[in-house]
Amino acid sequence: MRILISNDDGYFAPGLLALYEAVRELGEVTVVAPERNRSGASNSLTLDRPLHLKEVQEGPTKGFFYVNGTPTDCVHLAVTGMLEHEPDMVLAGINWGPNMGDDTIYSGTVAAAMEGYLLGVPAIAFSLASFEGRHFDTAARVARRLVERFRLQPFGAPLLLNVNVPDVPWDVLAGERVTRLGRRHKAEPVVKQISPRGETVYWVGAAGAAADAGEGTDFHAVEHGWVSITPLQIDLTHVGQIEAVRQWLE
Ligand code: MN
Question: 132: CA distance to ligand 1 center in Å?
Answer without folding.
Answer: 13
